[in-house]
Amino acid sequence: MNFIIKYLLLAVAVMFGAKYLTGIKVDTFQTSLLVALAMGFVNTFVKPVVKLLSFPITLMTLGLFSLVINIVLVYVVAHFVHGFTVTGFVPPLLFSFGISIVSTVLGWFLD
After folding, report:
1. What is the domain count for the chain?
2. Does pTM surpass 0.85?
3. What per-residue confidence (pLDDT) applies to 2?
């Protein structure tokens, strides 16, 4: 039950981000549900592998390359979820920060 509540609230956060960030567009609430699920999948399975493979460059840039990884992962989700479009550099960065914060807070209360 907590899983469903968490992803519904993440979908609301996706809609909120799309409303207030100019480079993020989400067509419908169903699309935002798919984005929330896809972001969860990407952050759980793909991101650790990418971070492991990019560890040397992340170390050389003192961790700043992890910001680029977050942006690329948002673009990957936008590529696979129709109705979710992303443009620019800063909007997906802020979007990934916002989703991460909301996910962390929801994890504190719902897990």
Report:
1. 1
2. yes
3. 87
